[in-house]
Request: fold
Amino acid sequence: MIRLGRAGREVLRWGGPGLLGAAPRRGAEVLVGAAGGKQRSGIAEILMNRPHARNSLGKVFVNELFSVLEQLRSDEKVRVVVFKSEVKGVFCAGADLKERAKMNDEEVGHFVRRLRHLMDEIAALPVPTIAAIDGYALGGGLELALACDLRVAASSAKMGLIETTRGLLPGAGGTQRLPRCVGIGLAKELIFTGRQIDGQAAFSMGLVNHAVPQNSEGDAAYQRALTLAEEILPQAPFAVKMGKLAINRGMEVDIASGMAIEGMCYAQNIPTRDRQEGMAAFREKRPPQFTGK
Reply:
């Protein structure tokens, strides 16, 4: 089933298990869309759709995200993944505290470990990922956005690791990814205070790549995220994947080891057809036609 979006753009191929091109699954909390048309054919959209709980991270929601990620990981047609909300005014409100309240201590520990693993799986997707934050991204919702490679926010969006205001601390990667993003001092201040900041403040401290004024449709960050995805789309897919791998692995080690990682990633890129196509296109003064091979 294909749903037409604004201006007639082919937006979604609904799915659950089987995802792209699959039949719609009634009541799904996570949907996946394949943006249509020649320009956007390599952009997958993960659509969070849990309106009654503001996209909070409940068990079913998390299980469906794992399923979506597993199938996107092996889809060679996908070159960029955009995370967006189908619920107006919220990206992801964080943990489902009503569900959490029914768990004993052991169950809480198990579920938080599963959330941490989910964020690691998002970060490990081989293609670039972009979070489109058009509303609230709090607690685990911000941790989800931090697991993405790039973040775009509406200026009016609200973000924060608010766990200390609930007697908790960030447990799905926030204590590690936020300082790597904004620096140790700012990360400590934001986590210790549980402060919420808007999109413009997030941009000024480097938490998001772009902050844009919200539009009347409430999807300004999503539209900017698509524009960013379209800038990535024409580039050599394997080179982009190796660039992501080199950056991610290199950030975990000293610079000498990082240079060795870059060298190994570059060596894998040398024999690709895309590298040869890039050189040929440069010589012939034409746009390259990359295939990911």
